[in-house]
Amino acid sequence: MKRLPSLRSSPALALPIASRRRFVQGLAAGGVLLGAAASLADRAWSRSGDAATGSALVLRRTEFDLVIAESPVNFTGTARVATTINGSIPAPTLYWREGDTV
Questions:
Q1: Based on the number of CB atoms within 10 Å of its own CB, is 10 exposed (0-12), middle (13-18) or buried (19 or more)?
Q2: Nearest to 83 by CA among 70, 95, 101, 74
Q3: pLDDT confidence bin for 81, thresholds 50/70/90
Q4: What is the pLDDT of residue 70?
Q5: DSSP letters along 30-78, please?
Q6: Distance in angstroms (rounded) separating the CA atoms of residues 73 and 84
Q7: What is the mean pLDDT of residues 95-102?
Q8: What is the longest distance spanned by two Cα atoms in the chain?
Q9: What is the arithmetic mean of pLDDT over 35-47?
Q10: 30, 34, 45, 101: which has the fewest C-beta neighbours closer than 10 Å?
Q11: What DSSP string runs through 16-38?
Q12: Rounded CA gap, 86 and 88, in Å?
């Protein structure tokens, strides 16, 4: 009887098996990258809007005093000029009720 080669003994089909240590190192590296990305995003959002929550300013009234201007911003380490509304990025969210004269 002729024996067929098994998949485990074939070097062409052998997949590298990661060790437990390599797996844990990958998890740790992924966590560090996610933490760094979240930190950068927090800095970008806290530069404008409500500093406590990092969200856009919300205006709920019938009269809005909006100032549209160009302001210096730095999101990526390079200074740029952005169009801002009331000096914030993102712009404030405006709410009013149907029927209100705005």
A1: exposed
A2: 70
A3: very high
A4: 92
A5: HHHHHHHHHHHHHHHHHTSSBTTTTB--EEESS-----EEEEEE-SSSS
A6: 10
A7: 82
A8: 92
A9: 59
A10: 101
A11: PPPPHHHHHHHHHHHHHHHHHHH
A12: 6
Q: Which residue is associated with the tokens 């809005």? A: 64
């060790």: which residue's tokens? Answer: 19
Tokens standing for 26? 């990958």
64: its two tokens:
């809005």
Residues recorded for the chain: 102
Q: What percent of the chain has pLDDT over 90?
A: 3
The model scores a pTM over 0.90: no
29: its two tokens: 């590296």
Count Cβ neighbours within 10 Å for each residue of 23-58 and write b for 16 or more, e otherwise.
Answer: eeeeeeeeeeeeeeeeeeeeeebeebbeeeeeebbe
Q: Which pLDDT does position 51 carry in this prediction?
A: 42
Give the torsion sign (CA, 42, 43, 48, 52).
Answer: positive
